[in-house]
Specification:
With 122 residues, the chain is α/β, with parallel strands linked by helices. The protein is built from five helices and five strands. Helix 1 runs parallel beside helix 2. It is globular, with a radius of gyration of 13 Å.
């Protein structure tokens, strides 16, 4: 399951994976994001709160995640990843090779700093 909320008048989307991710989650998320991108042409930032991230339910969910990322990353300016996990701390460095957006990790306690960074154009 992916919980989400908007910040700064739909400029920044915060997502919180709270259970094993399923394909339907990414379709539902795309249904929320696509209209904003159509209206504004881009999404200023994406905040991924990964403190409770548990992984994908199955291979189909992983593929859905890849498709969502492929379709959306060109319309994002910045991505911030909140996590205290050492392994997830390397995710932004890996993502920088595959997505157009600038990606940066933040410790969980620096959520306000992450939102501040996302709110400024890159």
């Amino acid at each position: 399951m992916i919980e989400h909320c908007w910040h700064h008048d739909h400029d920044i989307l915060e997502i919180r994976p709270v259970a094993d991710l399923r394909p339907a989650e990414f379709r539902a998320l795309a249904a929320q994001v696509d209209p904003v991108i159509c209206q504004h042409g881009y999404l200023q930032g994406l905040l991924i709160d990964a403190r409770h991230y548990r992984g994908w339910q199955n291979f189909a969910a992983l593929v859905s995640h890849c498709v969502f990322t492929r379709n959306q990353h060109r319309h994002l300016h910045r991505i911030a990843v909140l996590s205290d996990s050492t392994l997830l701390g390397f995710m932004p460095q890996l993502l920088n090779h595959f997505v157009a957006a600038e990606v940066r990790p933040f410790p969980v306690e620096e959520e306000a700093a992450a939102l501040e960074w996302l709110s400024h154009p890159g």
